[in-house]
Amino acid sequence: MSFDLSVIPHKNIILAVTGGIAAYKSAILVRRLKDFGFDVRVVMTHGAQAFITPLTFQALSGNPVHTELLDPEAEAGMGHIELARWADLVLVAPASCDTIAKFANGLADDLLSTLYLATKAPVWVAPAMNQQMWAAKATQRNLQTLVEDGVHVIMPDAGEQACGDVGLGRMPEPEDLARQVAAYFHKAQRAIAEKFGLLAGKRVTITAGPTREAIDPVRYISNHSTGKMGFALAAACYAAGAKVTLVAGPVSLDTPNGVERINVKSAMQMLDASMNQLEEGCDIFIATAAVADYRVAEVAEHKIKKAGDELAVSLVKNPDIVATIAQQQQRPFMVGFAAETRNVEEYAAGKLVAKKLDMIACNDVSRPDIGFASDENAMTVFFAQSYHLEKRELEKASKQEISQQLVEAIHDALLQK
Ligand code: PMT
Question: What are the boundaries of the signal sequence (predicted)?
């Protein structure tokens, strides 16, 4: 499973490390959590400090490490109540038998057990211990109490243990734990987006990238589109709560998290895939693809051999995908893009009318710093007259930021529909 970090909100994690040999894995866990963009503060019990030093965690987390309940200096900075409030999630890894027993019985005789009682944040425990201690009735009884109290217990892995035993009790790998935490916040964020996002519940189809029109089995006609604009827009629409399908020409980009992708090569294939999406249900159609306007009339079955000084290839017009979809009776909200090298706004406004679109975003592709292949873009957005919306200038910014502004523009127009 992969995650688009841009849709995981900034969150504060308290990683509580208790006494056990698995504490060494927690150092790597700090790194992995930070990789996901989390702010991490480490709390250590006295037992944990017998296995690994606070200094290690301080260096890795970039934050002071909290070890004492009644340390006046620590309480003056971030005391146990502030820590409990700061946390969006408390992850206890490894969680020793002793800590589990304290949690289950409401003891409050050190920083971690006090923090546990004082926090409103979800608490996750990743028990790690000898397999016999894991199986002990008291441990299982305490774990059952924690589950009943709403604590999320992460099952330990089975395998060879530091003490030589074989069985359940190993702490899961740090990558795995960090991924579970990220998935938790990702899922929560997704649920919010689906309920309250600007495009909550909308079905969006986006064409992206170039098309490739074959000349013979080894040659083709294409253009400079890389798909970056369309893929960024797909991620932004998904983050805004939409169900997104990308109809992608041949590009070498990873599919944004949560987005369905259909790969095509030619304009005819892109049209077919787009029409299928219309049949499956589409509320918003966005055409960022640079579709070849013409294709070769007759594609040679075999590689064309070099012969005379000149070679004439006859071309025929491709169907206009976005215009075809705009003509359908049950048409979605139609968003076109316009790539121009001169008279940018005039030509774009013409396409808005000619293709019967609701909205068009144009960019000047003669500029080397924006448009094709660049990570940035600058656009002017026009709306169909019926929307009574002023044109919008989107200043030069990353394609991700431009996409968020386009999502807002689509949302504003939909409000008027
Ligand atoms: O992919 P990147 O490297 O990130 O570059 C982004 C981009 C420059 C390709 C993008 O920002 C952009 O401008 N896309 C539109 C490119 C284009 O083909 O524009 P156009 O003016 O030729 O076409 C107008 C509209 O009709 C577009 O929405 C296009 O997708 C659509 N069209 C065109 C021809 C055709 N046969 N079918 C279509 O649907």
Answer: none
